[in-house]
Amino acid sequence: MYLDHTGIAVRDMQEAITFYTTVLGGTLIREYSNPTPGVASNIAVIEFEDAHIELLTPTSPESPIARFLKQRGKGVHHIAYRVDDLDQAILEAKQRGITFLEDTYRQTPLGRRLIYMDPRHSHGVITELCDYPEN
């Protein structure tokens, strides 16, 4: 398992892209929307030499990103860890008593499978486990 990306909730996508590319020197490698109910977000992926971040803005008031922005404001939304096999990682974590937000299990339009742990296990940090089965 290793750090895959950090998700950052932002209110103004273009302003955030400008900051992370111009000031911090990242490269915008893709922008896409995920209209899936319960997700409803625009995502911009910014790549750095050995890491990347995902900037997240809601596309509906019901989006978890909209709720996050309302409750906590802009900032780090989640930390994602890449695993070799998501289903196996979930099974092993459950054997250790970890619970997941089961309704978050999904595959993104870009092929990443993911699920979020219940944040009570990770000291309030929203933690994503993910894999890329087609890569």
From TrEMBL:
Q: What is the lineage of its organism?
A: Bacteria, Bacillati, Bacillota, Bacilli, Bacillales
Q: Does the keyword Cell membrane apply?
A: no
What are the protein's UniProt keywords? Answer: Dioxygenase, Metal-binding, Oxidoreductase
Matching PANTHER family: METHYLMALONYL-COA EPIMERASE (PTHR43048), METHYLMALONYL-COA EPIMERASE, MITOCHONDRIAL (PTHR43048:SF3)
- Record-level Gene Ontology MF annotations: dioxygenase activity; metal ion binding; methylmalonyl-CoA epimerase activity
Biological process (GO), any one: L-methylmalonyl-CoA metabolic process
Where do the coiled-coil regions begin and end?
Answer: none
Specify whether DNA repair is a keyword of the entry: no
Q: Which organism is it from?
A: Exiguobacterium sibiricum (strain DSM 17290 / CCUG 55495 / CIP 109462 / JCM 13490 / 255-15)
According to the entry, every stretch annotated as the VOC domain falls at: 2-132
Q: What is this protein called?
A: Glyoxalase/bleomycin resistance protein/dioxygenase
Q: Note the PROSITE patterns from the entry.
A: VOC (PS51819)
Give the domain of life. Answer: Bacteria
User: Which family does the record claim for this protein?
Assistant: Belongs to the methylmalonyl-CoA epimerase family.
